[in-house]
Amino acid sequence: MTRTEEQQRKVEEAQRIIGRDFDDPDILLSAITHPSATEGKPVKFSYERLEFLGDSILGAIVANEAFHEYPELDEGGLTRIKVALVSGTSLAEVAEKLGFADVIVFGSSERGTGRRGLHSALENVYEAVVAALFLDSGIAGAQAFVRRTLIPKMSVEMAREPENPKSALQEKLQEEGITPTYKLVETQGPPHDRTFVSQVFAGMKALASGMGRTKKEAESQAAKTALDALGFTKASKADKAKAKREKKQSRTEKKNKG
Amino acid sequence: MTRTEEQQRKVEEAQRIIGRDFDDPDILLSAITHPSATEGKPVKFSYERLEFLGDSILGAIVANEAFHEYPELDEGGLTRIKVALVSGTSLAEVAEKLGFADVIVFGSSERGTGRRGLHSALENVYEAVVAALFLDSGIAGAQAFVRRTLIPKMSVEMAREPENPKSALQEKLQEEGITPTYKLVETQGPPHDRTFVSQVFAGMKALASGMGRTKKEAESQAAKTALDALGFTKASKADKAKAKREKKQSRTEKKNKG
């Protein structure tokens, strides 16, 4: 494959950041190429397939490091460490610090995407680079890169249990002298398969409602939505994953229309 | 570690099923030991930590197989194949067929758990065995086991997009001559951060409500809940994972009390 001058320069800069020359630089070029730059070309020319593979390879590398580093932690603590380390925010931060922002190949439609698009591209490129290293030089190559760039952030603090949303909301509201109350507003479905809807109030004001398989779960969900609406939490990983899927879907729909 | 007669017999049988003698059979013993059999002992004596590691190793092995087997699939199709292959149902089925049900070491409190407890234990043991193989004989050992026992189930059919819940509900209800209708019943939060609640009706009868960040998402969620309530779907993977976490938590709480 012949590379443009921009592509060639970015591949070389990426190799410098990674600290390794690739046997097949085209794999690395795919790993740093945003889908906006490959419209109409086969899927293998952007980072999307590599991101899928890299996500799993990275998960295995991080799980293995945490498993050996913290022999006293149970699977709950280990899972929280892994989730924190491989979160979008964590990976985007690491990728930015390494200087990947300047080597991503964007198409013209994405150049103006701004901060948010860049954040997500940085995360994806980090995962895709892990896959590219795995394909080009085996698990050892991928592992060396992750150990150098991500594992130094790993800490036992990441294993701490998150607060439960009802206590968190109570704490926040009590700073303003308010105690939240809960009301069951609806019960759906047959007895063996109920869904509950609960509402949480600050005084007379309904803050949010939540659904769940138990009353407790519905209240917890309502508290969580209230915390989000009041701006006390960042978007959860699941929400972000969803937003990402929806963005991809709308991109696909656009492509199919165009 | 001295093993009881039951433990020794089960380790030998597990080695026969896996087709490999372990350098360190104690790792395999942990992988087939349900947490109910290790009360009061350190976490490493049951399969829970190994299940954490095995889940990630298995994910990487399956992702790698799918990536190479289906070069024409995009990351969405590859993800659906991976999710289907490593689902609880898929792993429990494979583990049962291999004969793992007879080698799991349960504690006395779990012997009467019945079908559901066994299903979840089979899934966990499969993942833990993958980790045990990885620790005892490297990634090649784990890969050989997964290739022999799980990968033969992999098919391109698994990459198909799931139906959207609104069409699925419409189809189901139209078999009975009913067209579902949707009503927006509530809007929460400030304009830039809205949550919508929609209800779905069959004639005058409210079937379910759903919440979402958009009206479309709220309706889709309502349709999904209605499908569940009407018994048209199996519990989702997320629901199952949640049920599993809650079960673990209640077990931990019991332990802490006792």
From TrEMBL, chains A, B:
Residues 249-258 have a biased composition (Basic and acidic residues). Mg(2+) binds at residues 51, 124, 127. SMART domains: DSRM (SM00358), RIBOc (SM00535). The active site is at 55, 127. It comes from the Bacteria. One of its GO terms (cellular component) is cytoplasm. It catalyses: Endonucleolytic cleavage to 5'-phosphomonoester. The keyword Cell membrane does not apply. Residues 234-258 are annotated as: Disordered. Its cofactor is Mg(2+). Keywords: Cytoplasm, Endonuclease, Hydrolase, Magnesium, Metal-binding, mRNA processing, Nuclease, RNA-binding, rRNA processing, rRNA-binding, tRNA processing. Digests double-stranded RNA. Involved in the processing of primary rRNA transcript to yield the immediate precursors to the large and small rRNAs (23S and 16S). Processes some mRNAs, and tRNAs when they are encoded in the rRNA operon. Processes pre-crRNA and tracrRNA of type II CRISPR loci if present in the organism. Homodimer. Belongs to the ribonuclease III family. This is Ribonuclease 3. It comes from Slackia piriformis YIT 12062. The gene is rnc.
